[in-house]
Amino acid sequence: MSTSENFPIDRVQIAPLDEIVERHQVWSRMAAKYGVQNPVPPWKSSLDGICDALDQGGCGPDILSMPDRRREEDLLSATVYSDLPHPENQLVSLAHSLVVRGVIDETELQQRLASVRARLEVWPSTPAAT
Amino acid sequence: MTDHDHDHDHTRTVAPMVDEVTDFEVLEIALRELCIEKGIFTAGDHRRFTEFAERIGPTPGAHLVARAWLDPEFKKLALAEPMAASREVGVDWLEPTGFGTPSDFTAFHILEDTPTLHHVIVCALCSCYPRPILGNSPEWYRTPNYRRRMVRWPRQVLAEFGLYLPEDVAIRVEDSNQKHRFMVLPLRPEGTDGWDEDQLAEIITRDCLVGVALPKVGVTSNAIVDTRPAIHPVQH
Prior knowledge:
The structure holds two protein chains of two kinds. Chain A is mainly α. Chain A is built from seven helices and no strands. Chain A has one domain. Helices cover 58% and strands 0% of the residues of chain A. In chain A, helix 5 packs across helix 6 (88-100). The longest helix of chain A is centred in the C-terminal third of the chain and has 15 residues, at 106-120. Chain B has helices at 10-13, 23-37, 43-55, 59-70, 72-80, 82-88, 131-134, 139-142, 144-150, 154-160, 197-203, 206-210, and strands at residues 107-112, 117-122, 170-175, 180-185. In chain B, helix 4 packs across helix 11 (197-203) and helix 5 (72-80) packs across helix 6 (82-88). Chain B starts with 9 loop residues before the first helix and ends in a 26-residue tail after the last helix.
């Protein structure tokens, strides 16, 4: 399915992604805040894994082909997400492409973001059993 | 015994980490989970591709070039049968991930520099890159500025990387695509007589293998790690 060639995807606003852009928790800022030296965020390899799995595994290429994914990433990174550095712009552009295609519903994304965050923010009061 | 009843110094042994959950971390997990739940790819696919992304780097490419500099027969092999030469440094282009990637066959080519010809690689369309032998592409390689300007103003773009080539050195820009990937075989620099493969490989950086730098004694890292504004920016 090709979207960007005949549909102005950069005119579509996706509220959960806009909120993420607004909060601007980009790696360079967070790393500086905590004195972390790693040049790339810890989720970068997993994002690469998502992109490769989409490009080469299962039915990914039928849903979002690699040329479309990269073309839309270029477009969105230069427009809607121009305030974000790489790889944050790659991640958000990928989410944008999947939502625009209807692969992921915006409400569904919002709910999943909330549930993932709730899961990650649970700090056990006692050490886990080993 | 308590958690910290041991005799090493955490201030020296534990690197600092970001101690809060960030939106981008959450988004990456959310996307991954939703794709897996919808059957777009499997968790196993994702894990294997992520491990592949973690494993690859420019070391095999650097050793291939170093070996070619030291061994004329290996250099002949590298130029005539680059896929066979790649196997000698541990890269199998027919199955680069090592777990049966269902990708199409990709041809790999090694471009030999001469005193009067310099090569540089690009992917004008997207960001095709010889990942199995050079690792993940740097950020600047993916940008429209690099991709579109390199094919128009190569001498100027190379100068932005700090590589100023004399006018009598021709520049050939090789455009990668889905089927053809390239790597540069630069000239061996002066001052490396008697060096072994490991010593030579240290100065053959990723940038040298892309063609935006030349190997130089004492230089073992890439000059530019971030993107920066272009002299002729691409107009959107």
